[in-house]
Amino acid sequence: MTTELDPSDDNTPRDYDRLIIAVDFGTTFASVAYAKVNKGMRGSQLGLEDVQCINRYAGYRPPLGAPPLREDVPTELWYDPNPESRSPPPLAATQMEVNDERPVDNRWKSLYPDSDEESGLEVEQETSDQDDNEEAFETSRPRCWGFGVQNHLKKIDIPKDNARRITRFKLLLDESEATKEVRDGLVPTLKALQRRKLIQKEEDLFAHYLTHLLENTRNQLQKIGELDGNVHVEFVLCVPAKWPTKGCRVLQAAMRIAAKEAGFGNDGVCNLFMVSEPESAAACVLAENRDEIYFGEVIVILDAGGGTIDAVTYEITNEEPLRMHAEIAQPDSELQGGSYINQRFAMLLTEKLGDEQYLVKNGKTIKSIVEAQTMVFENGEKRTIDTVDKHASLEPIYIDDVKENSQKGLYTNRVAVSQDELNMIFCDSLRGAKEVLKRQLQTAESKGKAVNKVILTGGFGHSPALRHYLRNFVRSKKNVDGREIVLLTPNSPSTAVARGAVLRALKKNDGPSRITQCSYGFLRTEPYEPHFYEAHKRTKPRIDPVDGERYVHGTIDWLIKAGDELPPRHRVPITVKHTFNLARKHLICKEVLWVSDQKLESHYRHSHPNNRGAERAGHIVADMTFLKDRGLIQPEAPSHYSTFRLNPQRRHWVVNFELVMIVDGRNLRYEARWPPTEDLEFGEEQTVHAVGQECIAAAFQPGTA
User: Fold this and answer.
1) Is 295 helix (H, G, I), strand (E, B) or coil?
2) In 234-291, which ranges are continuous DSSP H helix?
3) Where is the composition biased (Basic and acidic residues) (predicted)?
4) Does one domain contain both 538 and 603?
């Protein structure tokens, strides 16, 4: 098994098998889809029927009536500070924890006031038979993830100290105001994990989770023989529309670590392909409904996930392969995904049981009872109930030893949830989805664009309540042409993004232009030249103790700048100089690669405000001692620019070599080559003495080949 590095056209048949693996890393659930392109086949020959999903995850225990296999897995980790302990892992603090046991009444006040529009949505009830169309791990990766975390929460008698459950951590990469409350809520848990040395930085969370996800993927693929023989693996990563470039880079780096740790080869994901979640979902829906999406149509993609409900509006510019124009309406979101239904369910149950202190015994607490029941609700009736149906009801919740108190809906061993309480649990998430969709429709209308269809995807998109609610809403609307708006739903909304991403990766042609959104450069020690470089004018140079010349240390020479259009193969060489004391035994040269999300001017120190936000991306170390040992260089006397020029006996070693930045598709390789091109003699070839590489998929717009 090797990792695919060839960025050439997907329509060119290969002399080896290819395995496309797409990862949809969602806020509350993740999924993995894959397809095999056999030797001699073109990627464009495959269709949606050839795309499969990983559907076996440890710890999944289907509730009564649920499918025996799941194609998505919770995006959750459980950090146990005592992994060798034989006792059950302690109950974690969760992101849906409430500070006081009994919420006050105003907690149930909806964030979305009733509107005249909503009261007019009295559409007939739908029948049930209606189709709904490189660095090593230095941290402690938790053994418990996904469904395993939820199973721990069902153990209502486990203590709640010491361990840490962490959820919704994808939102750490979204710096918008909408996610600030969630991000702030994660901070205490992150600090606790760092104090216990379970993580070094928040980015470790992504590498830890993705490693579990890819290990499970590899194990499943091996069992069915998909990794047998000389198969080349290509990874695809789905990212939200208009996500921060830094967020894409963090996930890109985590994927590289995870792929290596999971055994997918040392090359990791150097030529990773990134694609936007909305575009992937649309590709899946188009493949399922070939007569449903047409050239020139305007569509809203509503991604109802567990954390956020995201929407974006596109115009279709090509049907096959599917391509969409720049957004008609900018991406928008509401922080009211499916996990907030769980949160409100937990708050309601906490309120009902808050005074029932007789339940606190044998290791049980009110909190642990509530969390166990919330997991049962999450994987059970939450996924099947339609709260828009006036006759919908929730089965009484079985809890041992509950005593009767009819005023609070408590009966012997049962807790009842009234229809009003059930509507309260779902209300804000349903209205949040409607509000973000309404804003997209209004924006499109203000631009004279007629929205033809709305595509509903995401894990929360499974919900019969959400589908029914949104279908009623769009039926009450007409577009600017006076026509109806159609709601489309994939057969499996929770995996539509991953499956569509595979299809998109099989047909990379005709994507966005290769305009980089990042700058890449090398750390330099430059001769002090204020007459040539504006950046040097207000900089105090240092005298090099080796050659006595004046230099500006720690500058960055940006060889690729944000906004540059890069061909698939691009090469930028520079000559670098290193000086060494004559007594130095080893001539070791280190070159550091830097990256920034901004277009920056060269020759400023890395600490200068001009380079604010720039980060180290990698480095190489070249051992050039052979030049001295083989007599290929000779000691040099101080130059006439040197402060040591009056002492010609003060000699030193000078190493000049070529540092080459090479763009190869979505991979950036950088090499130390000797001799420099200008010093090559006839018939002589350069030799490479150090190589580094970084994936630069995050530097381009998602979907760029």
Assistant:
1) coil
2) 245-261, 277-288
3) 99-108
4) yes
